[in-house]
Amino acid sequence: MIKPDLDTAPRISDEIRKTTCYMCACRCGINVHLKDGRVTYIEGNRDHPVNRGVLCAKGSAGIMQHTAPSRLRAPMRRVGPRGSNRFVEISWDEALDLAVSWLEPIRREAPEKLAFFTGRDQSQSFTSFWAQNFGTPNYAAHGGFCSVNMAAAGIYTMGGAFWEFGQPDWDHTKLFLLFGVAEDHDSNPIKIGLGKLKARGAKVVGINPIRSGYNAVADEWLGITPGTDMALILSLVHVLLKAGRIDLDYLARYTNAPVLLDADGLLLRDGDGKPQVIDRATGAPAAFDQPGVRPDLNGTLDRDGATLHTVFHALATRYLDPAYAPEAVAETCGIPAPRIRALAAEIARAAFDSPVVLHRPWTDFRGERHETMTGRPVSFHAMRGISAHANGFQTARALHILQILLGAVETPGGFRFKPPYPKPPEAHPRPHSICTPGGALDGPHLGFPLGPKDLALRPDGTPARIDKAFTWDNPLSAHGLMHMVISNAHAGDPYRIDTLFLYMANMAWNSSMNTRGVLEMLTDTDETGAYRIPRIIYSDAYASEMTAYADLILPDTTYLERHDCISLLDRPICEADAAADAIRWPVVEPDRNVRGFQTVLVQLANRLKLPGFTEDGKPKYRDYADYMVNHERRPGVGPLAGWREECSGVGGNTDEERVSGATSATGGRGSPNPDQLQRYIGNGGFWVSHVPEEASYFKPWNRAYQDWAVSMGFYDAPQPYLFQLYVEPMRQFQRAAEGHGTRQPPEHMRARLREGMDPLPHWTPPREDDYPIHALTQRPMAMYHSWGSQNAWLRQIHGRNPLYVPTRLMRAHGLADGDWAHVTSPHGRITVPVMEMAALNDNTVWTWNAIGKRKGAWALDPDAPEATKGFLLNHLIHELLPPKGDGLRWSNSDPVTGQAAWFDLKVRIEKADPPAEAQPVFPPIPQRGGPL
C-alpha cells in the first residue's frame, strides 16, 4: 500500500505582524501571518488587553475582506448619469485637484455648503478636526443612527454609558442583565465576560424581544414587547422604592438625590454656583462638596413662603405612583406582573444581601477616608435595542437611574467606567456652529448642550446645520442626525448645500431609512436639469451600493494597508482597570492605486491650506501617520498616549508582564516622540497603563483616580461631580417652552418640549394604530454593517435572511417555513420568505440587517442569494413619521437626541404567492467597464 506523502504541519507563514482588527468595533488585537509577502492567516493576539487571543468569525475572515473582489482600484470621476456606474479612472493628482476645485470656493464663500458625514470609520476625532478647520458646521458620524440615545443619556446622567464608556465588573458581579443587546457589538469582550460569569455561577438574564446570541445562553430570557423597556425598568424602580431596597448612603454621598430644587424646578445653588443640600448635622444648607457635609435625602428648606424639597423627594413621588406598579405595565410590556416582582426581588437580593467588600482604602472628594470599597454585585448592559426608539433617550436614562438607585455604578460588582471616562457633560464641549468664510469653525461641532443658549441656531432662529441637530426639534443631538442629511439637502431645508462628502456611509442602501426615496433624492434634478444635490464625493474601500451615486470616488485601502489611530481622544480600547490605545499600520502594501482616507484628508487640507493642518501656508503633516505622532490637541496631549517623549525611554512589556496584564509602558502627557509608532509596533500595536489600585473604583469621587486622570491628560484639573438623577439641562429646555428665558422655541414646539424634556423619565404608553405587529432588525455576530456580505467565508454563515415569525402569528396567518409573506407598513410593502421562531415575542417579527444586497454591488454574482432572497426592512421605514393631522411632518427620531427610531416600525403581514425574488427588486447596478 502506497501511503500519500502528506505534510501534516505545513508552514503557513514566514513572518507575523501584529495590528488591530477592523472587522467590527471591538478593535481586538490580531496576529497577521504573511508568507512571501501575502496574508495567509489571521489569529487573535494573546497579549492584547481587549481580546486576550479570542477572535471571532469576522476577525478570522478579515483575510477575505483584504482580498475582496469588490475592492476599488483607483480614483474615479463620473462620466454618466448618477447611478449608471459609468466612471473613468483618473490619477490621484487629478482627483485631489478636482476635489479642491469644488471645495476651495465653498470654503472661501460659504463653508456651510459642504456637508461632511462619515460612517463607522473609528477616527472621528480626526475627521471632526478636519471639518472644523474647513469651517463647515455640517459634520457628524454614525452615532445618530446607532446609539446616541445610549451615549447621551449616560453622559447626562452619570458621565458615561455602556460599551465604549464602561463595562460590567465581570470578576465580581453576581447578577447580570442585558437589555436590547444584539451580538455584533463588543462581542469578544462580552463573550469573555460571560465565560467568567458562567464559571463563577453568576446568573445572566436576557431582556430582549428576540432570543438569539447572548440571550440564547442566558439563564433566563424575558421576551419583552419592543419599545416598552422603560415601562419594565420604572416598574422595577417602583417595587424597589416601595420595599426600601435602594442604597440611601450612596445616593446621599454621590448623586444629586439630596440636592434641593428651587421653585422653578432648577437645582438650588449658592453664590459660587454649587448645588445646595441640607446637612444632616446642622439642618442648614451647604454646598454638596463641602468637607464633612452629610447630605439629607429628605431635607427641606422654607424660602419665600414655599417649601423646597430634594430631587429624591421628586423621584420617589413620581415612581411610587401606582401607574408604575407591575400590574399597570405588565400587559403593555408583555411580562407578567409576578415575574416583574420576582425580578425586582432577585436584583435586591443580589445587591444587598451579599455585597462585595474589597479591603482597599481610598479618599473621596470631600476628604473622607474609607477603609474598604463596598459594592453591589448587580450589573447591566444595554445597546441599540432600547435606544433606537422615539423614547430611547429616556429609556436609557431610566436604566441608568435603576443602576444608581442600587448603588451599582463604579462600585465593586457593578458597572465600571473605562478611562478616559467618567466625564460629566460639563467636561465636554458645547456644540459650535458659527462659520466664517475662509476661516475655521468657532469650535467643535458636537457636544452636550446645557441649555437653550447652546443650540446650533442662526440669528434668525433657523437651524445652523443641514441635519437640524441641536435645534428645538432635538436639542441634545450629541452625535448629529446623519439619517436626515440627504432628505434635508434634497429639500433645501434649512438651506441648499453644494457638496455632500461621505466616507464609509452606505446611504444608498442599508444606512438609510426610506431607501427608494433616498435613491430618488440622489438622482433628482431641478427645473434646469441640475442635480438638487450638486456634487457628491465618496470614499470607501469597496464598490458598495453607494459608489454608483458619487461624482468623485476616492478609494480607501483595506485595514491591513493603512495607518489608523484608536485614540483616547476618540474611541479607545480601554478596559475598566486600564487606559489603553492602539494603532493599525500597513502590514502589507496595497496592490492598487488607493490611499488611506485619513491621509487623503491631510493631503486635501494641505492643498486647501486649512488652519490646524498648515502654518504660514506650509503643511504641518505629510500624511496621517505624521499627524498621529506630531499633532497635539492640547499641549502634551495627542492622538496617542503611549511612549510620548518624556516616557520614550521606558521599555515595552516583558513576557511576564504581558501574561499578567501588567505593563511598564507609562504614558499620557508628553511631547511628540518621533519613534512613537515603532514603539507601538514593537509592543503588538497597543499601549496600556493600569489604573492604580486605590483608584480602581468610585472614579468620579476618588481623589486618587482624579489625580491619576489629570496626570494622564484626560482633563486638566480634578473634577469630581454628582450623578444626575434629575437632569437640570432638560429642565432648562422645559422652562423655555413654558415662556422663560431669552431664547424661545416656536409655538408649535412648546408642548413637545414640555413633555419630551422631562428631567425625570416618564413612561407614556404607545399609540395604537392599524399596524399591530412590531418589526425589528438586528445584526448577527458574524456580520458587521454591510461589510461582511461580500466576504467569502462569512457568506457561508449568513447568505440570506428570512423573516422570523413567532409561532402564534405563523398559525394565525397559515404560514409554514419556506412560505412567503407580504409585509406592509404605512410607508410601503416588501415580499419575503418566512421562518418560524418560537423564542420570540409573540407580536414581533424580525430579520438580520444588511444581508440583502442590490444586484451589481459588492462584486457579487447577480444571482447571489443576498440579491435574490435577501432583503431589507429599510424599505418599510420612512425618515418622517406619517402625518398626524397637525399640518407638520415630524422626523422619525427621538425628540431629545434625534436618534433614528428604526425599532418603532410596525407592520401587517399576510401570506403571499412565492415570487421569483424577494420584493422590491431594484434595477441592477451596471457593472463598470469604463464609459459606455
Automatic annotation (TrEMBL):
Q: Indicate the segments forming the 4Fe-4S Mo/W bis-MGD-type domain, all copies.
A: 14-70
Kindly indicate where the leader peptide sits in this chain.
Answer: none
User: In this record, what's one Pfam family?
Assistant: Molybdopterin
MF (Gene Ontology): 4 iron, 4 sulfur cluster binding; metal ion binding; molybdopterin cofactor binding; oxidoreductase activity
Q: Quote the subcellular location field of this record.
A: Cell envelope
One GO CC annotation: cell envelope
**Which key words are in the record?**
4Fe-4S, Iron, Iron-sulfur, Metal-binding, Oxidoreductase
Q: Which cofactor does it need?
A: [4Fe-4S] cluster
Superkingdom of origin organism: Bacteria
Region Disordered, as annotated, extends over 648-676
Principal place of residence: other
The UniProt similarity line reads:
Belongs to the prokaryotic molybdopterin-containing oxidoreductase family.
What name does this protein carry? Formate dehydrogenase
**Taxonomic source organism:** Marinibacterium profundimaris
